[in-house]
């Protein structure tokens, strides 16, 4: 999935998918912190972290329900003492992200705005044809 909108900071940006049907939010910092938290818990020898990840890995091999995946990922987060998946966004970045989100909306939902759709001419008198 590529980002079709240019961004000054692609590591935290809004964009659209290649088919322009969905918006895309990229926040690399969340993934980075998640991996660092897992690595730190593993390094500290937390046996519970490995057990929780093993249970998650076993579930992924099968056909787990969304609820089961939620429970298993929450178990990993709890054992690893992970923080919420959130980042602080300074005001300047908020304004930039707002502009990117506005552009993404214009390219996705804005394409289907009824005012932009052209209607076919209607034949008023069917007998005239």
Helical content class: 40-55%
In whole angstroms, the N-to-C terminal distance is 49 Å
Tally of strands: 2
Lateral strand order in the biggest sheet: 1-2
Beta-strand proportion: 5-15%
Round the Cα radius of gyration to an integer and report it.
23 Å
Structural class: mainly alpha
Overview of the molecule:
With 129 residues, the chain is mainly alpha-helical. The protein has one domain. Helices cover 48% and strands 8% of the residues. The protein has 4 helices and 2 strands. It has helices at residues 28-43, 47-61, 66-79, 91-107, and strands at residues 12-16, 23-27. It has a two-stranded antiparallel ribbon with strand order 1-2. α2 (47-61) packs antiparallel against α3 (66-79). It is flat and about 50 Å long. Residues 116-120 have low confidence and may be disordered.
Q: How is the topology of this model organized?
A:
Elements: E1 12-16, E2 23-27, H1 28-43, H2 47-61, H3 66-79, H4 91-107
Antiparallel strand pairs: 1-2
Helix pairs in contact: 2-3
Concise summary:
With 129 residues, the chain is mainly alpha-helical. 48% of the residues lie in helices and 8% in strands.
